[in-house]
Amino acid sequence: MKQFKLIPLAVLASLTMSSCSDLLEKDSEDTVTIDQYLTSDANLLSFTYHIYGPYTWTNYDSKFSWCANELTVGNVYHNFGDEGSFFFLQFSETNAHLLNGYQCLYGVISRCNMIINDLDKQCGSGVSAEAKKRAKGEAYLMRGYCYFLLTEYWGEVPIITNNNKTILADKSNDIKKASRRCVYAQAERDFKKAEEMLPANRWGTSNERPAKVAAKGMLAKLYLTMGAAAATPDLANHKFNAEKSFNEYNQDAIKILDEIIPSCYLESTANYENIFWPKSYNQENLFSLYFEQGPYGAGSQRQIMWGRSKFMNSGENAYGGEKGLTVTLFNSFEPSDIRKKACSYYADGDKMDDAKEHTPVYKMYSGPDYVYYYNPSKTLVDKKGLCNSPYGSEPEMPCKNALRKFVYRMPVTNEFSAALSLPILRTADLYLMRAEAKMALETGAPDVFAKSSAGLEDLNVVRQRAGLTAYNQPVALYDTDAEQTTTFIDDRDASDVKEYSYKTYSNKYDLFEERRHEFALECQNWLDLKRIYYRNQASALEFLEHQDRGWVYGNKLGVEVAKGDAQYQRQYELNTADPTLPAETPIDTKNVAWFFPIPSAVASSLSSKTFDDLDQIKKGSYPY
To answer: With 70 as the cut, is the pLDDT of residue 300 above it?
Structure first.
């Protein structure tokens, strides 16, 4: 893909602080203003690329995106600092990552506003009307996505659609938080405008830019969410005065999905992992963020944050050695599910020291295939035909099911800035959304645990692509767990083997679990759980309470052990009745922040009143 040039980047970075007309009081010899740069369709294409990732999305991608999703929902084990507070569900309004995510989304909105409102004035005669229309369509799509995220995370939030009337006019402190229905309406309006302006087919240097189908798909997701929210209009002091009923919103979602699914590409089973390769412009990814390897901010930090060792980052730093899938998620995958391997580097088989018996074999971004040993410190010299050549030794990690999706051994020039394609909307999501909407119409709003055959055909499309057999009996959106007793053997001292029992819940199959397996590590599952919460608060809370989050697949208290229960380690220490062991940090399911607190650094500047004029939003007459 064509790299975005540094000159327009510097200009773009100044947009939220300076007027477009007097961006620079005096031009230096090596400075180019926006209107000097936007002289061709090619330059406009390069200019708008930044709303998809480089520099613009850095503070969202670096930590907030996965802390607020993978940790909160219990997909990933991680207990360190402000990041770990999301895992323990104990984060507050002073959490630095909460602030970064909030401010970053408004930063993206500011750039989209500039494109929507000022592009015609900034572009030269060499830029075609069609190119400007596409650019505005992209900006509407991305702005709608940002408002969707903001209200799902925080509830009532400010709406800003014109930088000149807010930031530049010094009116930011006058803006009220908008009601949820107004923020939903703004996202809806933006998605509809995007549909009008985007072309019918994918486009761009590598066909990476979104088409109308992306806007329609996001509109369907919005309606699915609004339908769930309509089930409980007054929820935790976050009212949603819906215009339509639960059934009507789900019918709207189905109508859109029926229209677009036949034209959307679903990747094959054999090439499933191609969806997540760095710099992948896979056609299943209908709408994505794109990061480029380069200076800090241009690329994604996922490689360093999730990479299990320096081996994954060309000898550079790596912070993912203790991050891994929680055992509850790891064990919930069926043995033949290809998505388990896509999510995790792990060892399987009874003879995990023997390459001949070892599965799976992983393909790296560059170089030969790689066998991941249970004890990675073993030098990989005897491949038994499974690998092309040895990689040598890798330091031993405390976690034995390290995160894999989006993390591949690749040449890294800056471990904080790696290439990444992060899907926002995939074809598989369209199928599972339609299944969810069909089930909702059959079972009704609160009955998330009622089993239904509606949508089974769509669900099975995704299951069978994952290498699994079709499901032939009714399923629920969320199935109630069956309680059971699990025994843990503490055999660190062979002369004093201890046995502890604790309460767990059996694995079950439902549509929500299917979504967890399909979209694990893609920063979506907290939003999926929110839809359950809207419809049935007790079921959403039960999901969190029944997770045994504290277990991670790894060394037991730093001691290498044989395969068996003992290779699962509790957070920090074993959670047992042994008084010599420190207590583990509790998971705070009693005070779950289903709507995140507004960061304290910005809360004081917001008006205490709420804007709720839906008519202004729909007509586009909103003053700010």
So the answer is: yes
Question: Contact 337/415 with Cβ under 8 angstroms?
Answer: no
Peptide bond between residue 446 and the one before it cis (omega within 30 degrees of 0): no
Run of H or E residues at 529: helix 525-535
- Helices (DSSP H) in 288-407: which residue ranges? 302-306, 327-330, 338-343
| The dihedral sign for the CA sequence 456, 462, 464, 467 | negative
- Share of residues in the chain with pLDDT > 70 (%): 77
Please tell me the distance from the alpha carbon of residue 347 to that of residue 330, in angstroms, as a whole number: 12
Prediction pTM value:
0.89
In what helix (H) or strand (E) does residue 198 lie, and over which residues does it extend? Answer: none
- Containing H/E element for 286? strand 285-291
| Nearest partner of 155 among 239, 260, 36, judged by Cα | 239
Given a contact cutoff of 8 angstroms between Cβ atoms, the answer to whether 384 and 356 are in contact is: yes
Burial, 497: exposed, middle or buried (Cβ in 10 Å; 0-12, 13-18, 19+)? exposed
Q: Are 318 and 307 in contact (CB under 8 A)?
A: yes
Q: What is the pLDDT of residue 623?
A: 87
Q: What is the DSSP letter of 376?
A: T
Output phi, psi for 518, to 5 deg: -75, -40
Residue pair 107/15 in contact by the 8 Å Cβ criterion: no
Where do runs of H (alpha helix) occur along 49-154? 58-59, 65-66, 81-87, 96-122, 129-154
Q: Which residue has the tokens 């997909």?
A: 75
d(CA 428, CA 448): 21
Q: What is the pLDDT of residues 103-147, one digit of tens each?
A: 999 999 999 999 999 999 999 999 999 999 999 999 999 999 999
Residue 91 three-state SS: coil
Instruction: Please report where in the chains the tokens 């059934």 appear, as a residue.
Output: 247
Residues with Cβ < 8 Å from 534, sequence gap 6 or more?
225, 228, 229, 231, 232, 235
Provide the mean pLDDT of the chain.
82
Q: Retrieve residue 416's tokens.
A: 């904080």
Query: Quick check: 603 and 97 in contact, CB under 8 A?
Result: no
Question: Do residues 404 and 345 lie in contact, with contact meaning Cβ atoms separated by under 8 Å?
Answer: yes
| DSSP state letters, 442-455 | HH-SS-TTS-B-TT
Query: In the prediction, which pLDDT does 17 show?
Result: 31
Query: How high is the pLDDT of residue 228?
Result: 97
Band the pLDDT of 12: cuts 50, 70, 90.
very low
Percent of the chain beyond pLDDT 90?
57
User: How far is 10 from 1, CA to CA, in rounded Å?
Assistant: 20
Specify the pLDDT at position 620.
Answer: 92
Cis? peptide before 360, omega within 30° of 0: yes
Nearest to 584 by CA among 26, 231, 90, 118: 90
Residue range 48-62: mean pLDDT, rounded: 93
Residue 184's pLDDT band (cuts 50, 70, 90):
very high
Helix (H) or strand (E) holding 368: none
**Length in residues, the chain:** 624
Burial 217-245 (b: 16+ CB within 10 A, else e): bbbbbbbbbbbbbbbbeebeebbbebeee
Distance, CA of 520 to CA of 329 (rounded, Å) = 9
Residue 321 three-state SS: coil
Rounded to an integer, what distance in angstroms lies between the CA atom of residue 226 and that of residue 186? Answer: 13
- What lies within 8 Å, CB to CB, of 263 at 6+ separation is 213
pLDDT, tens only, 547-582 = 877 666 554 444 333 333 334 455 444 444 455 555
> Which SS3 state, helix, strand or coil, does residue 1 take?
coil
